[in-house]
TrEMBL record:
Pfam families associated with the record: Bac_luciferase
Keyword Flavoprotein assigned: yes
Organism: Acinetobacter tjernbergiae DSM 14971 = CIP 107465
Name of protein: Luciferase-like domain-containing protein
Recorded GO MF terms: alkanesulfonate monooxygenase activity
Keyword Acyltransferase (UniProt): no
Length: 397
């Protein structure tokens, strides 16, 4: 089974953007450069995560600067009406030749309420199911209308006037939907709706166990899903170099930063002093922190090459989550990706910072060691050039 590798395409960027001192001003021109880089290097797609910019607008603006790169656009159901989003998607696909993917983000009660969407936890998933069903129906050209509990759309008439007609679908099976959901209701929603089920990273066996359960639920209703995960990545020519770089990132923070990260992850009714982890690695790190000692980078390795050190997406000291990284040589990381693959993972959404430099490292060092399912022949980098010389090449827009 081959895998798909996607790259992160969202602000902010910088060498260590989780700290103000390591965060760059990431304007449109910089995002454009990241997109061009990911496209030219041969990544399958890029995740357009939620940020200060509207994701679909940014993705659409990058169409003319890219040729093959798919855009995995984070979208909350209800931000716009489903029929309106369907026409946006038809337009995007017509101009990009079918390069749109949606990352279905169901958010939380407070976040959605700020967008004018007010549903309880379970209602939120029921609403999302109707929303995306109505979206796909309209995207695929069904003009018969939609009548649901939450969504009502009148039939759409077309006259002889060109202004009354839509361009029609480019992706004949609909826009692929990626997304997540861990609660019982979230899993039900996922298996009924999604094409690719996503989860934050964990160790390969534990992630595989989660995906196996979701796969079983999907099989009950006759569906088969693909599975993907989100990982940070530090890849170097040698394992020693990779861990040296990981240590340099850890050296940017202090003891209090790590303690505050633990406090944000604590279960209800637990304190920094009272919490006990069943994982001996985690418990050892907690003991060091309580004694005023910041563990070394290698101490946060919870599985071979799986690291819970600091990142833009969190310092996952208690449990692996959005900030968890793969650290090692290209051979180490290729081995770990193949292990994840053996547990059913076929898509990896990666990021390393700065985004352009680390994208080059991944393409140069890791791509040749993996069987990739990107749908096109990968470009060949100049093997006589060093990474540093590649990074110094001018990108022409």
């Amino acid at each position: 089974m081959a895998v798909k590798l996607l790259w992160y395409l969202t602000s902010p960027d910088g060498p260590y953007p989780w700290l103000e001192s390591g965060r760059w001003d990431t304007d449109y021109e910089h995002l454009q450069q990241i997109a061009i880089t990911a496209d030219r290097l041969g990544f399958y797609g890029s995740l357009m995560g939620t940020s200060e910019y509207e994701t679909l607008a940014v993705a659409a603006s990058l169409i003319p600067f890219t040729e093959r790169l798919k855009f995995l656009v984070a979208q909350h159901p209800g931000e716009v009406q489903p029929a309106v989003l369907a026409k946006y998607a038809q337009t995007f696909d017509a101009f990009s030749k079918g390069r749109l993917l949606f990352n279905v983000v169901n958010g939380n009660d407070k976040g959605l309420a700020a967008l004018g969407i007010h549903y309880t936890h379970d209602e939120r998933y029921d609403f999302s199911k109707e929303y995306w069903t109505a979206f796909q129906q309209n995207y695929l050209g069904d003009r018969s209308g939609f009548e649901g509990e939450f969504i009502q759309i009148a039939p759409r008439l077309e006259s002889g006037s060109p202004m009354s007609k839509w361009s029609g679908p480019t992706q004949k099976q609909g826009v692929p939907l990626w997304g997540a959901g861990t609660s019982a209701k979230g899993v039900q929603h996922s298996v009924e709706l999604l094409d690719v089920y996503l989860s934050f990273a964990n160790t390969p066996p534990l992630l595989g166990e989660k995906f196996s359960k979701v796969s079983d639920e999907a099989a009950i209703i006759g569906r088969t899903l693909e599975f993907g995960t989100r990982l940070q990545i530090i890849v170097r020519e040698t394992e020693e170099e990779a861990w040296q770089y990981a240590q340099s990132l850890l050296d940017k923070i202090d003891l209090n930063y790590a303690i505050e990260a633990v406090k944000r992850q604590l279960p209800p009714n637990e304190t920094f002093e009272s919490y006990h982890s069943s994982n001996p690695i985690v418990q050892r790190n907690l003991t060091l922190l309580r004694h005023g000692v910041l563990p070394r980078a290698k101490d946060f390795e919870i599985y071979p090459n799986v690291w819970t050190g600091p990142s833009l997406f969190g310092f996952d000291i208690l449990n692996p989550a959005a900030g968890t990284a793969l650290v090692g040589s290209a051979e180490n990381i290729a081995e770990r990706i193949k292990e994840y693959e053996s547990y059913g993972v076929s898509a990896f959404i990666l990021s390393g910072f700065p985004l352009i430099g680390e994208a080059y490292r991944v393409a140069d060092l890791l791509f040749p060691l993996l069987e990739l399912d990107h749908g096109f022949e990968l470009p060949k980098l100049n093997k006589n050039s060093s990474i540093d010389s590649l990074l110094n090449q001018e990108i022409v827009v």
